[in-house]
Amino acid sequence: MPKLLQVDFTLPVSNNADLQEKMRELANSINAEPGVIWKIWTFNAEQSLGGGVYLFDTHSNAQQYLDMHSSRLTQMGITNIRGVIFDINEPLSNINHAPLTV
After folding, report:
1. Positive or negative, the Cα torsion across 49, 55, 60, 65?
2. pLDDT tens, 38-80?
């Protein structure tokens, strides 16, 4: 069963264009991580938050990525990192056209 990972953190940049420039290399590397199906990047300028919502094939791969990614973000000087792995309610999500195909 796929797992949803939600991550957010305090951003070191103040606008979306700076975020795109700073994180482009990271974005390209995410596709090579075990179990990643997709990621939606998030940005909230008012609260200086960035992050993303990921779909993983297993809980184990989501947890492994969260551990690695939290460490990597910390090394980049990013603070207030929060990550939560969720089960997905597929019947209700399908009603709302969620892209859950693995």
Report:
1. negative
2. 999 998 888 888 899 999 999 999 999 999 999 999 998 888 9
